[in-house]
Predict the structure.
Amino acid sequence: MNSRWRVGIDLGGTKTEVILLDSANETHFRARIASPQGDYKATLNAIKELVEAAELRVGEAALPVGVGIPGSVSGLTGLVKNANSTWLNGQPMAADLTHLLQRPVGLTNDANCLALSEARDGAGQGYKVVFAAILGTGCGAGITVSGQLLTGPNGLAGEWGHNPLPWTPQTELNQRLCFCGRFGCNETFLSGTGLTLTHRLLWEESLDARNIVERFQNDPRAARSLDDYVDHLARGLATVINVLDPDVIVLGGGMSNVLTLYDELATRLPAYVLGSECETPIRRATHGDSSGVRGAAWLAQDR
């Protein structure tokens, strides 16, 4: 399948996005729709309609397609697992999309798409080992080595969001039930939703992550909540450095836009990294909200 075009789909919990890139990585079409809720067949059809809309823009059919999803693909069965859009779990989504679109379809975790995009022509370009984390509604990560995805035999490489936050008392972990059924996962601390929960547990006040960030400079409560969040994030990233020691860490998702994180992390990471020193650069994703869908398009090219 040779084409100057490639189509990426980013399937999120609330929105689904399509992008059409050319061989120079320039965007020629981009659109978003609300993601179907609780309906697997409707999800497949929505993806098909977005792909057809991209193809209509350039008057070509059967373009290469890559799809990022909020879950993993089992290397053993090919079925989706660990998706927080739970209606995807247990479904042969790659096979179903291949049949529906009548072409091979690349399918991987949305955090893998972030990693692929940023490693190829973003904040991780030029680094050998890139660890890219999404800090959004959920919390996941992907790993690339020399610009290629590392997925592992279980399709779990980079699934950092569902390990318990380290150096945290069990009583604190038990306060945070994760959708995966366990308590105290990184996701329940390090996502935007996790920051909201931190604030509620501290102050018995419901305030979403956006409002906490907007208020932290003038509101002592919001400042304390964000300070705790940064410490939680330093703990979570320190375990990555202690195990993988990547050449760069790239942050995406809504919380990556909180610029104070980067200086604070540089200060706090050495306290948790073995040897009490840390030279790992922490970078904000170059392509921002576009990283996931662009990474899916890169996946299409690789297919």
